[in-house]
């Protein structure tokens, strides 16, 4: 239901995965989706096709930066904490994780908060009943891909 996409800044500052019409500076949002009802199995082929079409559309228009499912807090998870100089690592699973119910995430590029909300509404039309939480990703000077410093978010499809 989710697909990873590659975006970032290429050699010479060329933008990868962003439409020419995309305005700068864009805002980035972390979108966390939690379904209203825990799925009893995989999505139907029809639902997969609808989600695939939305992912393709938003990837092409430059608003989808990255997306994927969230692994439940299990063997791959850990909490790393530093207290008074001592670093502690706790292995998963964690029953009290704030992200436990979230099924998937996306990093969205938007012109405004309102634009990000419209993207979330469009996603929910395809995903169905549930909740999408949007958190703005704040940029640090010199650390964003938009700054042309060669930084990028990369993953294989």
Task: Outline the structure in words.
It is a single chain. The protein has 157 residues and is of the alpha+beta class. The protein contains 2 helices and 9 strands; from the N terminus they run E-E-E-H-E-E-E-E-H-E-E. The strands form 3 sheets. A 4-stranded antiparallel β-sheet has the order 4-7-3-8. Strands 2-1-9 form a 3-stranded antiparallel β-sheet, with no helix packed on it. The chain starts with 6 loop residues before the first strand and ends with a strand.
Report a brief summary of the structure:
With 157 residues, the chain is α+β, with helices and mostly antiparallel strands. Helices cover 20% and strands 31% of the residues. It is globular and about 50 Å long.
List keywords for this structure.
single chain, 157 residues, alpha+beta, four-stranded antiparallel sheet, three-stranded antiparallel sheet, 2 helices, 9 strands, disordered N terminus, disordered C terminus
Mean pLDDT: 76
Rg computed from alpha carbons, rounded to a whole number of angstroms: 17 Å
User: How would a textbook summarize the main sheet?
Assistant: 4 strands, antiparallel
List the helices and strands in order.
Answer: EEEHEEEEHEE
**Total number of β-strand segments?**
9
Helix content: 10-25%
Structural class: alpha+beta
Low-confidence residue ranges = 1-23, 146-157
Proportion in β-strands: 25-35%
Judging from the principal axes of the Cα atoms, what is the shape? Answer: globular
DSSP helical segment count = 2
Spatial arrangement of strands, main beta sheet: 4-7-3-8
Distance between the termini: 13 Å
């Amino acid at each position: 239901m989710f697909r990873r996409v590659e975006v970032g800044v290429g050699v010479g500052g060329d933008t990868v995965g962003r439409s020419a019409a995309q305005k700068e500076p864009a805002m980035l949002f972390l979108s966390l989706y939690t379904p209203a009802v825990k799925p009893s199995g995989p999505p139907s082929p029809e639902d997969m096709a609808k989600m695939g079409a939305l992912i393709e559309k938003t990837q092409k228009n430059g608003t989808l930066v990255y997306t994927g499912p969230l692994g439940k807090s299990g063997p791959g998870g850990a909490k790393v904490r530093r207290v008074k100089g001592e670093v502690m690592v706790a292995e998963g699973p964690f029953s009290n994780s704030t992200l436990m119910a979230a099924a998937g995430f996306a990093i969205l590029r938007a012109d405004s908060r309102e634009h990000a909300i419209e993207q979330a509404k469009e996603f929910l039309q395809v995903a169905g009943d549930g909740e999408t939480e949007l958190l703005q990703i704040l940029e640090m000077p010199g650390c964003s891909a938009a700054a042309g410093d060669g930084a990028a978010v990369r993953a294989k499809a």
